[in-house]
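User: I'm putting together a teaching handout on how multi-component assemblies are represented. Below are the sequence lines for each component of a complex, exactly as they appear in our records. Could you produce the 3D structure of the whole assembly as structure tokens, so the students can see both representations side by side? Please keep the chain order the same as the input.
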Amino acid sequence: MASKDENRVWPTGLTEAESEELHSKLIQGTQIFGLFSALAHLLAAIYSPWLG
Amino acid sequence: MNRVSRSILTSWFCLGPRFLPFADAASEQMPLSRLLRLSLFQVSVGMALVLLVGTLNRVMIVELHVSATLVAVMVSLPVLYAPFRALIGFRSDTHRSALGWRRVPFIWLGTMIQFGGLSVMPFALLVLSGGGNAANWPAWVGQAGAAIAFLAVGAGLHTTQTAGLALATDLATEEAQPKVVGLMYVMLLVGSIVSAVVFGAFLRDFTPGRLVQVIQASAIATILLNTIALWKQETRDPGRYRKKAEGPPPKFSEAWGTYIETDGARRALIAIGLGTMAFAMQDVLLEPYGGRVLEMSVGATTWLTATLAAGGLAGFTLASSILSRGADPTRMAMTGAWVGIPAFGAVIVAASTHSVVVFASGVALIGFASGLFGHGTLTFTMNRAPKDQVGLALGAWGAVQATGAGIAVALGGILRDVFGTLASHGVFGASMAGPATGYVMVYALEIVLLFATVIAMAQLVRKGGDQVPTGAVLGKV
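Assistant: Of course. Below is the structure of the complete assembly, with chains in the same order as your input.
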């Protein structure tokens, strides 16, 4: 691994491109989980209404 | 920890590998513990598969009273995603990652989608069955919900498995590959058997609440198993990113064109497709055949599945030990196809002799033969995968294998019904009008497919990479 890269930012030791990629994965994960969670709540509400 | 328990622990570690069939799979780069840990993704795949085609299949029909046709459609939806495995593999080969990862992002993506599908699944099934307040809603709501859940689980498991197998190929040396393949197959089998038993036990006293608990527990198990499996496995290579960042993104059609012309790839895929179909067509027929034709009890027919699995386990173990001594994996796959022919023959003969013993040994032999065949073809695919197309090669193998199996299972049921109806109308003569004819016709067709597999395979055996591949020559003419 190229540890002598001066673009690395400490304390994580990641470069900017690497941290951007990690961030995009976090966003992607949140979107996917959010979508499925909304769907699960909708179907649960159809089966047994829990809003009024 | 005190000294006594530490020494007990150490002795367990020393004892362990001797009782595992694939212990010496660990090469210097890949110690056994890491390999075992990686193979956990196969446990989650096995769990999802058994849930889709086994447990939920039954729950929907017996407990939720969904119509059999609708259940068949839902259960077959994940197969639609199988052909995309080649594309997933290609995308992981060419993935542009600053972190220098190729497989981890895809294993993780697949894991998330499988988790999502499983967490929606119980509510979707309850709405599909029209229980609770769902009866006040149009039927398509439940159907759409269930379709999304089934598609998501299928998409997730195919993505995870493709990237996972590619990662295993990346990490294992060529000599270690037969053992890795054996381990992967055994973990898939273990995952399906253990979860089938666990799901069955927890769903015995069925309530809607229990269904939600069991399926969502399997969703959490998916995340846990896959996270443990991929943790710190893939070596990061940011240099690859810098190389790839230049130039336009590679095209799938071009990569596929190059791959399919490499040493026997096309012929191998055809043989894998034929062989997989031959072994998969009996999948849903063995139990009803045992019940209706040989008049076995329900408990006894359940043992057939166990017999088949035991045969498969024996096949993987034997293939692992022989192939790791440097035998030709294509020869192994061909042997599997050859052994399959008398196995199906025995199953057919069992109908006229009414012998359960002949039938059971035929079933065990089918499992054994398909174990040899599956192991041989996957090892072959791993061995011959071009270094920069590992994902594509494994994806193509998985696509052909999963699609072939899906089509074959559906076709087996349909053909059984068609031939059975024709026979009962006396089309094949009065002596063939019994209930066995539909089944026997399908088994005979499987023997024909196995012969076709052997013929397709014959040219691949011991055709080294140094010779001019016939496939490439034909492709240019």
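A couple of points students might notice: Chain A is about 60% helix and 0% strand. The two ends of chain A are 57 Å apart (CA to CA).
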